[in-house]
Every structure is written in C-alpha cells, then in structure tokens.
Design goal:
Elements lengths: L5 E5 L3 H14 L4 E5 L2 H7 L7 E4 L8 H11 L4 E6 L4 H10 L2 E4 L4 H8 L4
Parallel strand pairs: 1-2, 1-3, 3-4, 4-5
Helix pairs in contact: 1-5, 3-4
Length: 121
C-alpha cells in the first residue's frame, strides 16, 4: 500500500486551517496533515518532513504566502505549492504563476479542496 501523502497547511487563521483540514479528511481520509500558523513555523517543520504539497495563505504575520513559496521552491523544489487566499489581486495571481504556485480562491469548500488535492495526482 502506498504511503499516504503529507500536506502542510499554513494559515494564521486557526479556523481556516481546521476547516481546510476537515474538508481534506472528508475527501481523502488517508492524508497526513501538518499545520503551521505562520511561515516561520512552517519552515521549522520542514527540517524533519518533506510534504508532497503545501497549501499557503497569502496574508500572514512575518512572511507572506508568496515569500514562503519562494523559500519552499528553493529548499524543496519537488514540493507542489498552492496559494489558498481571499486576496485575489491580479499582481498576486501573476506572482504565484511566476513561481509555479497554483492559485485558489477562498472560501474553502469541497470543490476548491478537490481541485487542490488533484495536484497530488
């Protein structure tokens, strides 16, 4: 049996992380989910694990989701990256595309989560 995929959820909103994790588990109960409340906590976790996918919020204290994406691209080039945010400015979407980060707009729902999880395939 294949090892379940590990996904890192990074969002400063605990409620958003809980909702995202809940929907992901309902769609794919086999997933291993890790949660971080900011970019620094996410980077600290990656010393020991290498998730297949990181789902990042844009607006967080410290470093933004796109700044974190740049760091993850450099340190974990094989990791798939998704930006899940309510901040849908064109400049953010373009920067995400330039970094190879898939852009998804909140609110979190089953269809959005299904599209994010499709990145694992």
């Amino acid at each position: 049996m294949p090892t379940p995929a590990t996904i890192l959820l990074v969002d400063d909103s605990r409620a958003s992380r809980m909702l995202c994790a809940s929907v992901m588990r309902s769609v794919r109960p086999d997933l291993q989910l890790l949660e971080a409340g900011d970019g620094a906590a996410a980077l600290a976790m990656l010393v020991d694990v290498s998730p297949a996918l990181a789902v990042l919020d844009m607006n967080m204290p410290g470093i933004s989701g796109l700044e974190l994406a740049e760091k993850l691209r450099a340190s974990h080039p094989e990791m798939k990256l998704a930006l899940l945010t309510a901040n849908a400015q064109d400049a953010i979407q373009r920067r995400a595309a330039d970094l190879g980060v898939h852009f998804f707009r909140k609110p979190i729902g089953e269809a959005v989560i299904a599209n994010i999880l499709a990145l694992l395939e």
